[in-house]
Design brief:
With 94 residues, the protein is an alpha+beta fold. It is 59% helix and 15% strand. It has a 3-stranded antiparallel beta sheet. Helix 1 packs across helix 2. The model has no long low-confidence stretch (mean pLDDT 93).
Length: 94
């Protein structure tokens, strides 16, 4: 029997994007797309939200955009990892 598909929470999607940016920073959109496993439309929407909240910084070079994680974004990832560990310890999904 096939296991039901699990959907990612918005927090987990944010963390996946931030991890991709942190690993490749400054990261191009295509690199983030593959690592975070998102469509271009969804990724664009989330990148705007992450930039507005100060978790990432967008840098424009002509028609190319790259993204870097901010100190606030790094703190978000640290706290999210703690939440993941807590949830895993109790068998919960976040």
């Amino acid at each position: 029997m096939k296991e039901p598909q699990k959907y990612r929470s918005k927090g987990r999607i944010f963390a996946d994007i931030l991890r991709a940016v942190q690993a490749d920073g400054p990261a191009k959109v295509t690199h983030i797309l593959y690592k975070a496993n998102l469509s271009h439309d969804r990724l664009t929407k989330y990148l705007v939200q992450l930039e507005e909240t100060g978790l990432i910084l967008k840098e424009q070079d002509g028609d190319r955009s790259t993204y870097s994680i901010t100190e606030k974004g790094t703190k978000f990832l640290m706290e999210f990892r703690k939440m993941e560990e807590f949830a895993d310890a109790f068998g919960l999904d976040i």
